[in-house]
Design goal:
By secondary structure, the protein is an alpha+beta fold. Helix content is 15%, strand content 31%. It has three helices and eight strands, in the order ββββαββββαα. Strands 1, 2, 3, 4, 5, 6, 7 and 8 form an eight-stranded antiparallel sheet that branches. It starts with 29 loop residues before the first strand and ends in a 7-residue tail after the last helix.
Length: 206
Protein backbone atom coordinates (compact mmCIF):
# COMPACT_ATOMS: atom_id res chain seq x y z
CA UNK A 1 0.00 0.00 0.00
CA UNK A 2 1.27 3.45 -0.85
CA UNK A 3 -1.25 5.80 0.71
CA UNK A 4 -0.03 9.36 0.70
CA UNK A 5 2.56 8.85 -2.02
CA UNK A 6 0.53 10.78 -4.60
CA UNK A 7 -0.32 13.77 -2.39
CA UNK A 8 2.33 16.45 -2.13
CA UNK A 9 1.93 19.86 -0.50
CA UNK A 10 2.53 22.69 -2.92
CA UNK A 11 2.93 25.52 -0.42
CA UNK A 12 4.99 24.95 2.71
CA UNK A 13 6.26 28.49 3.15
CA UNK A 14 5.93 30.67 6.21
CA UNK A 15 5.26 29.88 9.85
CA UNK A 16 3.05 26.91 10.58
CA UNK A 17 1.55 26.35 14.01
CA UNK A 18 0.88 22.68 13.23
CA UNK A 19 4.62 21.96 13.12
CA UNK A 20 5.42 19.36 15.80
CA UNK A 21 9.10 20.30 16.19
CA UNK A 22 8.61 21.51 19.78
CA UNK A 23 7.04 18.16 20.78
CA UNK A 24 9.96 16.01 19.58
CA UNK A 25 12.32 14.66 22.26
CA UNK A 26 15.30 15.60 20.11
CA UNK A 27 17.99 14.47 22.59
CA UNK A 28 16.70 10.90 22.34
CA UNK A 29 16.35 10.72 18.57
CA UNK A 30 18.62 7.94 17.32
CA UNK A 31 19.13 5.66 14.37
CA UNK A 32 20.38 2.35 13.00
CA UNK A 33 22.93 1.81 10.23
CA UNK A 34 24.06 5.45 10.09
CA UNK A 35 27.56 6.33 8.94
CA UNK A 36 27.66 8.81 11.87
CA UNK A 37 25.10 7.74 14.53
CA UNK A 38 25.05 11.19 16.16
CA UNK A 39 23.61 12.69 12.97
CA UNK A 40 20.17 11.17 13.58
CA UNK A 41 19.11 14.05 15.82
CA UNK A 42 20.52 16.59 13.35
CA UNK A 43 17.71 15.69 10.94
CA UNK A 44 15.25 17.25 13.42
CA UNK A 45 15.67 20.93 12.57
CA UNK A 46 13.62 24.07 13.16
CA UNK A 47 11.31 24.93 10.28
CA UNK A 48 13.53 27.88 9.37
CA UNK A 49 16.43 25.46 8.72
CA UNK A 50 14.46 22.92 6.71
CA UNK A 51 16.44 23.58 3.49
CA UNK A 52 19.83 23.28 5.22
CA UNK A 53 22.15 20.76 3.53
CA UNK A 54 25.17 21.02 5.86
CA UNK A 55 23.72 18.53 8.37
CA UNK A 56 22.51 15.17 7.08
CA UNK A 57 22.49 11.44 7.79
CA UNK A 58 23.92 8.83 5.44
CA UNK A 59 23.30 5.11 5.66
CA UNK A 60 26.34 2.95 6.42
CA UNK A 61 26.83 -0.59 5.10
CA UNK A 62 23.91 -0.48 2.64
CA UNK A 63 21.03 1.80 1.61
CA UNK A 64 18.81 1.08 4.63
CA UNK A 65 18.48 3.24 7.74
CA UNK A 66 16.04 3.54 10.63
CA UNK A 67 15.42 6.84 12.42
CA UNK A 68 13.64 6.58 15.77
CA UNK A 69 11.75 9.73 16.83
CA UNK A 70 10.25 9.94 20.36
CA UNK A 71 7.82 12.69 21.35
CA UNK A 72 7.58 14.43 24.72
CA UNK A 73 3.81 13.82 24.79
CA UNK A 74 1.21 12.04 22.69
CA UNK A 75 0.56 13.75 19.37
CA UNK A 76 -1.71 13.28 16.37
CA UNK A 77 0.35 13.21 13.19
CA UNK A 78 -1.22 14.38 9.96
CA UNK A 79 1.83 14.41 7.69
CA UNK A 80 5.55 13.74 7.52
CA UNK A 81 7.81 16.31 5.86
CA UNK A 82 11.09 15.24 4.28
CA UNK A 83 14.11 16.55 2.46
CA UNK A 84 16.06 13.61 1.07
CA UNK A 85 19.20 13.17 -1.00
CA UNK A 86 19.19 13.44 -4.77
CA UNK A 87 20.57 11.22 -7.50
CA UNK A 88 21.73 7.78 -6.47
CA UNK A 89 21.39 8.63 -2.74
CA UNK A 90 17.61 9.08 -2.99
CA UNK A 91 15.73 6.58 -0.80
CA UNK A 92 12.64 5.51 -2.71
CA UNK A 93 10.60 3.92 0.06
CA UNK A 94 9.69 4.81 3.63
CA UNK A 95 7.97 2.49 6.11
CA UNK A 96 6.53 4.08 9.25
CA UNK A 97 6.01 2.17 12.51
CA UNK A 98 4.19 3.88 15.39
CA UNK A 99 4.47 3.41 19.17
CA UNK A 100 7.22 0.85 19.52
CA UNK A 101 8.63 0.92 23.07
CA UNK A 102 12.16 0.48 21.73
CA UNK A 103 13.59 1.07 18.31
CA UNK A 104 12.84 -1.82 15.99
CA UNK A 105 15.74 -3.55 14.28
CA UNK A 106 15.92 -4.43 10.60
CA UNK A 107 14.60 -7.96 11.19
CA UNK A 108 11.52 -6.49 12.88
CA UNK A 109 11.12 -4.01 10.05
CA UNK A 110 11.11 -6.76 7.44
CA UNK A 111 8.75 -9.04 9.38
CA UNK A 112 6.29 -6.47 10.75
CA UNK A 113 3.52 -4.78 8.80
CA UNK A 114 4.14 -1.01 8.90
CA UNK A 115 1.43 1.46 9.77
CA UNK A 116 2.22 3.10 6.43
CA UNK A 117 4.40 2.29 3.41
CA UNK A 118 5.15 5.33 1.25
CA UNK A 119 6.77 5.54 -2.17
CA UNK A 120 8.94 8.65 -2.01
CA UNK A 121 9.23 11.08 -4.89
CA UNK A 122 12.33 10.62 -7.01
CA UNK A 123 14.08 13.62 -8.49
CA UNK A 124 12.63 16.04 -5.89
CA UNK A 125 15.41 17.66 -3.83
CA UNK A 126 13.24 20.19 -2.01
CA UNK A 127 10.92 19.84 0.97
CA UNK A 128 8.05 17.42 0.33
CA UNK A 129 5.05 16.78 2.57
CA UNK A 130 3.45 13.32 2.61
CA UNK A 131 -0.05 13.25 4.19
CA UNK A 132 -0.69 10.28 6.48
CA UNK A 133 -3.80 8.27 7.27
CA UNK A 134 -4.66 10.19 10.44
CA UNK A 135 -6.69 7.30 11.89
CA UNK A 136 -3.48 5.27 12.24
CA UNK A 137 -1.58 8.10 13.94
CA UNK A 138 -4.06 9.63 16.39
CA UNK A 139 -2.07 9.09 19.61
CA UNK A 140 1.62 8.68 18.87
CA UNK A 141 4.51 8.77 21.34
CA UNK A 142 7.22 7.25 19.10
CA UNK A 143 7.80 6.77 15.38
CA UNK A 144 10.35 4.57 13.63
CA UNK A 145 11.09 5.65 10.06
CA UNK A 146 12.62 2.95 7.87
CA UNK A 147 14.23 4.39 4.70
CA UNK A 148 15.53 2.15 1.94
CA UNK A 149 15.62 1.12 -1.71
CA UNK A 150 17.85 3.97 -2.83
CA UNK A 151 18.14 4.82 -6.50
CA UNK A 152 21.78 3.71 -6.58
CA UNK A 153 21.34 0.75 -4.28
CA UNK A 154 24.29 1.57 -2.00
CA UNK A 155 23.57 4.73 -0.01
CA UNK A 156 20.55 6.66 1.32
CA UNK A 157 20.78 10.27 2.48
CA UNK A 158 18.28 12.32 4.49
CA UNK A 159 18.56 16.04 5.31
CA UNK A 160 15.35 16.88 7.16
CA UNK A 161 12.56 15.07 9.00
CA UNK A 162 9.54 16.98 10.31
CA UNK A 163 5.90 16.40 11.18
CA UNK A 164 2.60 18.27 11.16
CA UNK A 165 -0.24 17.60 13.56
CA UNK A 166 -1.29 18.59 17.05
CA UNK A 167 -0.85 17.69 20.69
CA UNK A 168 -3.27 15.12 22.08
CA UNK A 169 -2.51 15.98 25.70
CA UNK A 170 -3.77 19.53 25.31
CA UNK A 171 -6.99 18.32 23.72
CA UNK A 172 -7.60 15.88 26.55
CA UNK A 173 -7.19 18.64 29.12
CA UNK A 174 -9.64 20.75 27.21
CA UNK A 175 -12.21 17.96 27.25
CA UNK A 176 -11.99 17.67 31.02
CA UNK A 177 -12.84 21.34 31.38
CA UNK A 178 -16.08 20.76 29.48
CA UNK A 179 -17.37 18.21 31.97
CA UNK A 180 -20.07 19.10 34.57
CA UNK A 181 -18.83 22.17 36.47
CA UNK A 182 -18.06 21.64 40.13
CA UNK A 183 -20.67 24.23 41.11
CA UNK A 184 -23.40 22.16 39.47
CA UNK A 185 -22.31 18.77 40.79
CA UNK A 186 -24.00 19.09 44.24
CA UNK A 187 -27.22 20.22 42.57
CA UNK A 188 -27.16 17.12 40.38
CA UNK A 189 -26.58 14.83 43.35
CA UNK A 190 -29.40 16.51 45.34
CA UNK A 191 -31.78 16.13 42.42
CA UNK A 192 -30.95 12.41 42.18
CA UNK A 193 -31.58 11.89 45.89
CA UNK A 194 -34.92 13.71 45.76
CA UNK A 195 -35.96 11.71 42.72
CA UNK A 196 -35.03 8.46 44.42
CA UNK A 197 -36.94 9.33 47.60
CA UNK A 198 -40.00 10.50 45.71
CA UNK A 199 -40.29 7.74 43.16
CA UNK A 200 -38.58 4.88 44.94
CA UNK A 201 -36.41 4.44 41.85
CA UNK A 202 -32.69 3.75 41.89
CA UNK A 203 -30.55 6.33 40.14
CA UNK A 204 -27.51 5.47 38.09
CA UNK A 205 -24.20 7.05 39.07
CA UNK A 206 -22.15 8.53 36.32
Amino acid sequence: MNEGSNSVATDLTGADHSNLFSYIDRDNVHGLNLAVPEMAKELIKPWSNREDTTQFADSCVDDQMIIHVPFSQNVRIKSVILKIGGGESTPRHLKIFANYANIIDFTDAENTKPHLDISLLEGETGIVEYPLRVAAFTSVHTLSLYFGDSAGGDLSRVYFVGFKGDSRTGRKEGTKKLEIPAANAPDTQLFDRLKQNAGGQQTTAR
